[in-house]
Amino acid sequence: MTPGLRPAFVLHDHRVPSPHFDLRLEEHGVLRSWAVPKGLPTDRATVRLAVAVADHDLGHLTYTDADKSIADIGWWELHDRNARRFVFTLHGRAGAVRYALIQTDTDWLIRRVADED
Hints:
It is a single chain. By secondary structure, the chain is mainly beta. The protein has one domain (8-112). The protein has no helices and 8 strands. The chain has an 8-stranded antiparallel barrel. A hairpin with a 4-residue loop joins strand 7 and strand 8.
């Protein structure tokens, strides 16, 4: 991240090997990445699996190909973090939405949260 700029995010719609989404958050010079098989939750009652995958280089922010398109892009804002959970807002094309990523013993879960969570 260039000093003074906000950290970026991208949500890729990835069709190979099977349809899923990749959430990538810029942090410490890389894109921390999670595969989200069913996409980001659209309501607070839904919890989705988010599988941590290898970090990607920043070139993936705008990368597309025949099997990968950008579903959303923008910047993200961290609100709270501990060893097993972090709360952040994605500021994308359609506005701002707050999420929590929660680490379980084996994977991560992602859920949409209210602004005050």
